[in-house]
Amino acid sequence: MSKTIQMTTIGGPEVMQLIEQPLGEPGPGEVRVRHHAIGLNFIDVYFRSGVYPLPSLPSGLGKEGAGVVEAVGPGVTGWQVGDRVAYAGGDNGAYSESRLIPAAQLVRLPDSVSFELAAAAMLKGLTAQYLLRRTYRVKPGDTILIHAAAGGVGLMVCQWAKALGATVIGTVSTPEKAALAQAHGCDHPLIHSAGHFPTQVRELTGGQGVNVVYDSIGKDTFLDSLDCLRPLGMMVSFGNASGVVESFSPQLLSQKGSLFLTRPVLFHYTAQRSDLEQMAAELFEVLADGTVKVEIHQRYALADVAQAHRDLEARRTTGSTILIP
Question: What backbone phi and psi angles, to 5 degrees, belong to 229?
């Protein structure tokens, strides 16, 4: 039996229920993983609330975890019982003590990275990797704008971009979060309530604007983010924390400087096994050498996941948050 979080309907945090269910043995191509730590991410809120559709109900929740292999199914090679593994993506179901998962979704966890660090860093870190190295390849001399700079992805982007030679501008909601972002490589943390951030960004860049905006907020910041870009700049909309961006005419992009717009999803970037392995290797490298430090500021028991979601949605969290099964 495995304790797991199950939803029978979409809605608020209260729809997540802790149940016990039998798992059985892994099928062809699968392994059974016992979690030591589980990642909490805003994408989980999107699935729980219906912003992103679930394939069916009842459903599990959670996209990220780290633990050890408990059993190996038929046809699986390269994995054995006791291997340390981590993953980010695939079907929902990480909110559990143990789960069955396709072996192809796992990456080997080096001894230099703890289970808690992996659970806190895999999804956010792979997101930071594709944002900075693939969607727009940040180079020395670039200036970037990252929203939610004190969040889990934001803090990783600030550190990594700074190490790549970029000037980092970030938006946050409180002075405390501004200080946190600045301590993690953000050159210019801007507090939303302290002014109109496009004007501030223009002032900081001598009127030129930034090369790229990484926007996980969505509806509340999207149009203002476009006003922060220099001509031919890249708008990367990778989240909807404030709601889905409203429809607009593509003509707006030309009016604001022949801008580029993309709406990337991590799971498209990791669809090929070779890409997943390369991205994970680069992430583990910057974690191991200290280029990127991940701070776990919140830990919740799996049974307390509803409160974890409430705190996440209310923006009462900073850094990374994990669940302990």
Answer: -90, 145
Three-class secondary structure assignment of 24-82: CCCCCCEEEEEEEEEECCHHHHHHHHCCCCCCCCCECCCCEEEEEEEEECCCCCCCCCC
The answer on 49 and 35 residing in a single domain is yes
Q: Supply the pLDDT for residue 269.
A: 96
In a domain, 219, yes or no: yes
In a domain, 31, yes or no: yes
Whether 152 and 240 share a structural domain: yes
Concatenate the DSSP letters of all residues of 224-280 into one string.
HHHTTEEEEEEEEE---TT-PPPP--THHHHHTTS-EEE---HHHHTSSHHHHHHHH
In a domain, 130, yes or no: no
CATH number, domain at 159?
3.40.50.720
Query: For the chain, what is the total number of helices (H) and then of strands (E)?
Result: 10, 15
Give the number of residues written for the chain: 325
- Averages of pLDDT over runs of 10 residues in the chain (325 residues) are 97 98 95 98 94 95 97 97 96 97 96 95 95 98 96 94 98 94 97 84 98 95 96 96 90 97 95 95 94 93 98 87 96
Whether residue 248 sits in one domain with residue 298: no
User: Does some domain include residue 128?
Assistant: no
Of 263, 284, 300, which residue sits at a domain end?
Answer: 263
Q: Are strands 320-324 and 64-72 parallel, antiparallel or unpaired?
A: unpaired
Say what the pTM is. Answer: 0.87
State the pLDDT at residue 319.
Answer: 75
> 39, exposed or middle or buried, with CB in 10 Å at 0-12, 13-18, 19+?
buried
For 38, the domain range is 2-122+267-324
**What are φ and ψ of residue 312, in 5° steps?**
-65, -45
User: What pLDDT shows up at residue 240?
Assistant: 86
How many separate domains does the chain show?
2
Residue 186: strand pairing partners: none
What's residue 170's pLDDT?
A: 98
